[in-house]
Amino acid sequence: MIQGKTRIVRELEKIVGPNAVIHTEEELRVYECDGATIFRALPDMVVLPATTHQVAEIVKVCHREQIYFVPRGAGTGLSGGALASQGGIIIGLNRMIRILETDVPNQRAVVESGVVNVWLAQKISGDGYYYAPDPASQTACTIGGNVAENAGGVHTPKYGVTTNHVLGLEVVLPNGETVEIGGKVLDPPGYDLVGVFVGSEGTFAIATTVTVRILHKPEAVKTLMGIFHNIEDASNAVSGIVARGIIPACLEMMDKLSIQAVEKWAKAGYPMDAGAVLLVELDGPKAEVEALADLVVEVFQAQRVREVRVAKNDEERELLWKGRKAALAAMGQIRPDCYLQDAVIPRTKLPIILKEIEELSQEYGLPVANVFHAGDGNLHPFILYDGRYEEEIRKAVELGARIMNRCVEMGGSITGEHGVGLEKQDFMPLMYTEDDLEAMMKVKCAFNPDQILNPGKIFPTSKSCVEVGQHKRDRIRYEPHRIEKEGLAQRF
Amino acid sequence: MSSGPVNQTRRQSAFDAADPPEEKKYLECIHCGLCLPSCPTYLEMGNEMDSPRGRIYLIRMADEGKIGITDSFVKHMDACLLCRACETACPSGVQFGSLMEKARGQVERKYKRRLSQKLLRRFILSVFPYPDRVRAMLKLGRSSQRLGLRRLVIHGGLSKSLQIMEELLPPPDEVPADIPLPRVTPAEGTPKFRVGLLTGCVQQVLYPQVNAATVRVLARNGCVVVIPREQGCCGSLQAHEGGLEPAKAFARKTIDAFEQAKVDYVIANAAGCGSMMKGYADLLKEDPLYAHKAETFGQRVRDALQFLHQIGANGRYGPLPLKVTYHDACHLVHGQQIRNEPRALLRSIPGLQLIELKESDFCCGSAGIYNLLEPEYGVRFLERKVDNIVATGAEIVTTANPGCELQIAMGLRKRNITMKVLHPIELLDMAYQAGIAPRS
Predict the structure, then answer these.
(1) Under 8 Å CB-to-CB from A226, ≥6 apart: which residues?
(2) Interchain contact, B47 vs A389, CB within 8 Å
């Protein structure tokens, strides 16, 4: 609860105008969750600035009053990262939606952080360019949010994730200072602060404008759909593609339940009875694409593919992707709520983990659909439940944890692209020792020493920046080295 | 599933039992947010309460008894255009339109509006569904334009609405005199279909030429066109504003009128009416006498352009060397998912150049009577639309809904732009005329 809320509301209204401060409970309720509805937390206020200056002024108030604040883009995130989990102010960036500059010949664009990912692509499409990172929610998610989560997408096998496409940032630090990091050139001298910042999940500073790299569209694009009898064959086909040295632009797999949910809406021609579907997109010079497509078909055939379909034109191709990208959104047809996991596993373990997930799904009585960014081993199990029943929420969370544990045991990781946020902080010790976590916290404390910005995320413990590293210092103090004890050496 | 509900002591819903928003419909929303950028009010206001996802969340909370039907609940329900663009965007197929109409139904019965707002609504809804009254208002509007009557209306809340109402009315010389249409128009050549035409309340008064063109074009395509005299309003304006009971009465009357006419198809040339009639089944599903009738009726409804495209309109068009753009009426593109058919028909006219309109499926702000009830926002959406229309460089803008025609024409008039606003079927009609007697 914020002390002197009325006074602060008034002060913020002076900065952003009366229609841009939300403070009544029923209106705040709509901000209590993002795309991961399993977590809910009511903010004390929501403020909607329209300029970097306004963001800075709001943050100065928060800093002066030591009020927690959390940036939020479109609220499509899947790890609860945009929740005011400890109360405080949500700074919604949905009014900062201008594309400030597109410099096509030099392959860069400057956007405000509330710009929706796909708007940029639409803006430069006529010039033959595009913005490569394309998360499934790209029609709604913001580029600022993509920066926070270091978002991936279906094009990651060949083009990497958001960090590979960000050149510079204008950010407001937690004390209200506005600074620029990076710039317009690729790899500027000095520390790669942009690299440090991208993926910091809104715990370092609030990005207000983003300079991104844009790419020329390839000469040719070809999308093949391999329809398989089962997951094993499809997984082997993925390994086969990689073993041939092919780097596809996209390499995506969907299981039966996902295919069925998606097809009902998208009507893209996904086979409702297939065991698994592989989508492979190849791009580049026409001759190369054609040659690689033949190789992919060979690999498919070696794995008893039931049928190979090739998108005949852009329309068919877009329809296939529209379907794939709607996977999460289409799950509402099956159950009211979805708890989406974001595990990474070694590609070869996919058939094993999917079999185990199927068994767990039976055990808990909750349906689980799966999509798989096969190119980078990022598995998304959609755990489907009904949030009106407490028992089901508990089961969904437990089932998720068991999947996560198995993925880590198999040599994987707890998140591929959705971020840790609130959702996976308890899984962090599966991946890191306390020392590892403290090293990361030190970086956070360099940006956010009071931890008033987006507190309670990523890390399983809530240490103040003063406490960070304390146990290590204590250990050094109380455990002198053997040679010191023996009087052979002395510490100065 | 076996476990009990979270809210064992579930609070009392803010809604009553008469047509509440259905739980199973709002549960289909998985809160992914893909609808957000499709929503005009979200883009304009930038807050979550004025987004489809936020509105569904508010409806759900009201149904779960966590909030009441308060001023701010009503504000966010009122601000919705009901353009249903979110339905097009939603992969889970959430029926937002039905949720919103039913939420508004509850609001109308359970919320006390300010007197001026109440009167305004009552006035608008007692005029538009009745062609005779629309005709009377047209006359009155003109005299008030002359006499400056509205200056007498000093009530701040209403003057803006009344001003828009006046400005919406086309100048007298642009509205043709009533064009009487026969009850039955024979088909040209061998009759292939017997179709009924809904003439619409606003359409028949302000755009009688559109109905006349529709009849000619249908007849040319082998249709016997019946215009049942017993027909009335389809009920869409009422339903839009939550007047579900009057809407049901209109729906029953419409169903009866066309049933008696024994037609194969019911044709609407106003997107709002077509969308409404296709959805009668949802409106009347609790009505034991009409539930089944409404369903079979809905299956027979076609938008005029959809129907022509479906039957393969005969292509004996003469050339129309015109630069044309097309605005998707919300209740055609989102309400009925008809996007390509009108474009295909326009493109089939020789010489006609169809220029795509940026944000063609973004609401123009007319939205039933939204432009009158929420004049400030209605105008903002209109400005955005007119900017895009001007940027096409077209000579004619076409759209298949009278509300959009009025709204866009007003926007153009205010900027002194002499671009014509037509229904696509008028161009088809002109092309057929040009095919008979090529102009020299």
Answers:
(1) A234, A237, A277, A278, A280, A296, A300, A305, A307, A308
(2) no
In this predicted structure, which of B1-15, B176-190, B202-216 has the lowest mean pLDDT?
B1-15
Asked if A186 and A269 sit in the same domain, the reply is no
Domain limits for position A22: 5-92
Within B109-211, strands assigned E span 184-185, 193-198
Looking up tokens 């919103």, which residue turns up? B100
The shortest CB-CB distance from A329 to any of B43, B57, B92 is to B92
Q: State pLDDT tens for residues B255-272.
A: 999 999 999 999 999 999
Q: A184 and A230, same structural domain?
A: no
Distance (Å, rounded) from C-alpha B201 to C-alpha A303? 63
Please report the pLDDT score of residue A348 as a whole number.
Answer: 86
Q: Kindly list the residues from chain A whose CB atom is less than 8 angstroms away from the CB atom of residue B47.
A: 22, 46, 48, 92, 94
User: For the segment B344-395, what is each residue's pLDDT rounded down to a tens digit?
Assistant: 999 999 999 999 999 999 999 999 999 999 999 999 999 999 999 999 999 9
- Is some CB atom of chain A closer than 8 A to the CB atom of B67? yes
C-alpha closest to that of B47 among A5, A118, A31, A139: A31
Q: Return the bridge partners of A178, or none.
A: A172
Residue A24 confidence (pLDDT):
94
Task: Provide CB contacts within 8 A for B382, sequence distance 6+.
Answer: B364, B365, B366, B371, B407, B408, B410, B411
Share the mean pLDDT of chain A: 93
pLDDT band at A289 (very low <50, low <70, confident <90, very high): very high
What is the pTM (predicted TM-score) of this model? Answer: 0.93
Tell the CATH topology of B23-110: Fumarate Reductase Iron-sulfur Protein; Chain B, domain 2 (1.10.1060)
Instruction: Give me the residue from A37, A95, A391 closest to B46, CB to CB.
Output: A95
Q: Which of A27, A31, A388 sits opposite B72 (nearest CB)?
A: A27
Q: 202-221 in B: which are within 8 Å (CB) of A?
A: none
Q: How many domains does chain A have?
A: 5
